[in-house]
């Protein structure tokens, strides 16, 4: 698409000034656009009288300035690591604004999740129950009051099998197998019974799953919600548990290609309404609906701006830009599925006038010593010239977050356009010193060992 018309129009006007001040390359994010998407999500569910909360998947764009927007919109944060937990807490997230969804979890990560009042603990397996219990005892903390399990639906998989993030669930490392899910909650009930702390309120529960990625078919998400409600019904019947929420995960797709249809959130919410009403009628209560989208919230609200530095021909036409994969690795990493629309602009950021240049097929490449260092393969565009700009769309999620330093390439700066034309740098470019610092200060004995060879 996919950059919104409003952001594109603003950029056409503001790019010359932004480039003069900040130089290129950069990612730039559309603050008002992110606000609008979050408001639209909340309003969509509110209008259907559904209790809903978005927990933004911090991994998609882990920047303090972005977290502020999420917080402003009273959304929560889905965190999967210590840095993500810290970012969320630094943004002012309260314990129940944080869903800790990690896998292959280290003890230190649980420790961090339990600190500062804790958070919603989403366990990825039954094996973590005794470990978490032991840790709570060791650090004299009550067992978390609100526990959730990530469900692996196994052969009862829902949704699109091609695009699924966990592939075939029976081959996935994630979640509690559906056959074990009742036992997982039963184990928590047992722990809760043993909690002697008088102040402790009753044990509370949620249920989570995440079975797809970048899926624009809302019916797949409906199938996921339906499955979670089926498990909720089973938990009520077998254990008397009433879940506070079911979390359908992230994975909502966005239209990366021109002509792609968007995820139909309203149709999804309509179906959720019907399923929720039927569930409430049968079971006398209904859990809230949680989501943890990353891509859907920020993906369309970011673009990457690059200067064309070389135009060359081998067996194909190549456009060499300042940075490709180290600023956006998705196209290189998923050669058959990922696409980011690239728009050629005049050197001052204005649009290329239609018909003013021949249309040619180009591959847009960066400078690292890997042939997969591309932003676009064999795409048609007006013939680029050195000095032009390339705007790569939809870089607001899983873009800068996946940056890397191969070939000693420094990560690039990131800017945020706020309201009333205010643009600010929210993350500076890395410098050589940033890369070198980890090689410095290693003279002390704590960095040395004399091994004995016998
Ligand atoms: C557990 C979990 N939740 C949420 C997300 C966010 O996914 P998306 O950005 O596609 O919505 C991911 C992505 O990897 C994930 O692993």
Commentary on this structure:
This protein has 454 residues and is α/β, with parallel strands linked by helices. The protein has two domains: 32-298, TIM Barrel (Alpha-Beta Barrel), CATH 3.20.20.10; 300-428, Lyase, Ornithine Decarboxylase, Chain A, domain 1. 31% of the residues lie in helices and 21% in strands. The strands form two sheets. Strands 1, 11, 12, 13, 14, 15, 16, 17 and 18 form a nine-stranded mixed beta sheet that branches. Strands 2-3-4-5-6-8-9-10 form an eight-stranded parallel beta barrel, surrounded by five helices. The structure holds pyridoxal-5'-phosphate (PLP). Residues 57, 60, 78, 101, 210, 213-214, 249-252, 292-296, 397 line the site of pyridoxal-5'-phosphate (PLP).
Overall radius of gyration: 24 Å
Task: Enumerate the spans where pLDDT stays under 50 for 5 or more consecutive residues.
Answer: none
Shape: globular
What fraction strand? 15-25%
* Biggest pleated-sheet summary: 9 strands, mixed
Query: How many β strands by DSSP?
Result: 18
CATH third-tier fold name of the largest domain: TIM Barrel
Number of helices: 12
Structural class: alpha/beta
Indicate the CATH architecture of the largest domain. Alpha-Beta Barrel
The helical percent reads 25-40%
List the domain count as a whole number: 2
Give the CATH H-level superfamily of the largest domain: Alanine racemase
Q: Topology as H/E string?
A: HEHEHEHEHEHEEHEHEHEHEEHEEEEEEH
Q: Let me know the average pLDDT.
A: 95
